[in-house]
């Protein structure tokens, strides 16, 4: 078997660390240890979340770690070395892929999985490595993944069920961990994936209150408004105009001007009062229209705190439906007070022209409508 050399390119912050050794199982007094090197060239990315459904699961290639608001994945290639009396004796390579599927509607049960595959063993003992997989976390409880023999070139899967006890809001830190044994060799241990930090809560305004749920809060959810959907198209065209014509592209994905959700009724009322209050002229003879403001009144970037806003009179039903759908979407991804979110207007035609009946005519004032 060829000897596997340790890769020169490594990432220290996500390195797999040797955690310790147990009592030797052999009769002689020589030292036999298994050591795990740093994973080869790991890159970390995030993906947008437009859904809380299971099909939104992310995947990751070798040497990457990625997560969205409800799922995570890390995939490492790790050099393994066997030492006798602190001298190199043999090598192998360990592939480890760790995935998690959080449940934003139930904090008391979600699922994580670790897949291990050992290849290129250069000594007989490397053909008989056993692995036991568990989770390290601050607040969670988890069922052990069990112990399995890592038959070379065969993927072994360890399934773990995780719970976040209690009802308090907690920010956890979770990382899969493995302990490894081989004939004549002391037990070694290593982390098997990146650290991910779910937040679990039972916030009353975000249903269901009894079971709560968990998300990765560092990934903003993206609310999509489809301009080809006649139920909300008028709002979509207004948001698109605002994102393209205000001083800042509020809420536009990856633009750096996220919105932040608020449940504060005083602030929401103040935002509406500035953007769409009684002093704003109404289009005469059009009771079917209502005033729509952007950034949304339910954001801390609303008009009472931010003079860079737009308002437009549009179809009352469109306005109401969009607000209800947006609330349900943000709740489904546990978007709490102060959480960032983004707004993406989709299916915009190539000429970017809105139908005449939904074309915004100006930013602040609404009297021009």
TrEMBL record:
Keywords: Signal
Domain of life from the UniProt record: Bacteria
InterPro entries in the cross-refs: DNase_NucA_NucB (IPR029476)
Pfam families per the UniProt record, alphabetical: DNase_NucA_NucB
Chain ranges of the Deoxyribonuclease NucA/NucB domain: 288-343
Keyword Signal: yes
Keyword Signal attached: yes
Cleavable signal peptide: 1-27
Name under which the protein is recorded: Deoxyribonuclease NucA/NucB domain-containing protein
Organism: Saccharothrix violaceirubra
